[in-house]
Design goal:
There is one protein chain. The protein is an all-alpha fold and about 150 residues long. The chain has 2 helices and no strands. The radius of gyration is 62 Å and the shape is rod-shaped.
């Protein structure tokens, strides 16, 4: 032990070392309770809050993706329903249009048929009238050309 004490004295270490170590331990314990522990707790809280916020943010992102996918599915369903309704209405309109065209054609055919019959009747009446008036017109022409008694000029 004397050897150890002689080595300590030769290094220049004396009794003040123990006093300095006691002061260091005392100050360390005070700093630990007043500075280090509160700082460590605050650091852990921040770390927990940050990690927790990241997890919450990731959960919100996942929920948003889920909601977006559901929205896209519903949008496609609605779009297909609208397309079906549109196609049905278009087909009904096409049928109605064809029906109107057929009715219009039939009506035009009836009008044309009536007009043809009327023209034929008028032509027949004109022929009959012409046939009745032909001898009179012929006699009138002959009278003018031959004169009133049938003598030539």
């Amino acid at each position: 032990m004397n050897n150890i004490l002689s080595i300590i004295h030769s290094l220049g270490i004396n009794d003040t070392l123990f006093i300095q170590m006691a002061i260091f331990i005392f100050v360390y314990l005070i700093l630990q309770s007043l500075v280090f522990k509160p700082y460590h707790r605050a650091h852990q809280k921040r770390k927990t809050a940050t990690v927790g916020n990241n997890e919450v943010a990731n959960q919100f992102v996942e929920k948003a993706k889920t909601i977006e996918n559901a929205y896209q599915i519903k949008a496609r369903e609605i779009s297909s329903k609208i397309a079906g309704i549109y196609e049905k209405a278009r087909l009904e309109a096409t049928v109605e249009q064809d029906k109107i065209y057929v009715e219009s054609r039939e009506q035009i055919q009836r009008i044309l048929e009536k007009a043809r019959l009327h023209v034929q009747e008028e032509a027949t009446l004109a022929r009959e009238q012409l046939a009745r008036e032909t001898p009179q017109i012929g006699a009138a022409i002959a009278d003018r050309l031959l004169g009133p008694g049938g003598a030539a000029l």
